[in-house]
Amino acid sequence: MSAAAPPDARPAPEPQIAGPLPKRTHSVGTHVRATVVFLVLMILVGGFAYPAFVTAVAHVIDPAAAGGSLVTSPNGTVVGSSLIAQNTSAPYLFWERPSGTDYNMTLGVATAPGPTDPALGELLNETIAYMKAYGNFTVNATLPFWLVSPSASSVDPDLTPEAVLVQIPRVANASNLSVTTLLDLVNAHITEPVLPFLGVPFVNVLELDLALLPLEHRSI
């Protein structure tokens, strides 16, 4: 004989089948709004917040570089940036590398031609004139490639020591300074690479000329 069910027992509820979930609508306006918000956010972060942060850190680490690496004359006047070459043609100064844009930073320039490119000859008028006028002072010397070819940016202020040393006879002839004095000055402005395989020695010509002017009793 089976046991009777207690009087208050209730039957188990039947499982209910859930209906389909409401379908979310994706309107064009929703996507446009999300895109605009994301674009504005990226502009604020990438165009303002990140540059401001990097500039602030740079001003703490190296204020001179963060300010544009400005170079001043002995009287305190800003004459340029140590990162940008200038069109120097005075015979008593050391000359920069040739420029495919006439040292204009607002102009673009194609890749500088290589030593075997016929187009290189079209860019060497200034150097050819140099050789015609001062070739008799460069005895047993040839012009280094850096002195006859534009840099990739056309405003690189640096030259290899060889490209500066070959100019010493001309500068000495046009100034009241001896070759020995100029040689010592150039050697004092040679910057060696941090490691030999990370670059080559170079001379910042703008800084060299600024150091040269007081010795010649000249000013900018």
String of helices and strands = HHEEHHEHHHEEH
Distance between the termini: 122 Å
Largest sheet: 3 strands, antiparallel
Share of residues in strands: 5-15%
Number of helices: 8
Structural class: mainly alpha
Shape: elongated
Describe the structure.
- This protein is mainly α and 220 residues long.
- 39% of the residues lie in helices and 6% in strands.
- It is built from 8 helices and 5 strands.
- The longest helix is centred in the N-terminal third of the chain and has 34 residues, at 28-61.
- It is elongated, with a radius of gyration of 35 Å.
- The N and C termini lie far apart (122 Å).
Pick out its properties:
220 residues, three-stranded antiparallel sheet, mainly alpha, two-stranded antiparallel sheet, 8 helices, elongated
Short précis:
The protein has 220 residues and is mostly helical.
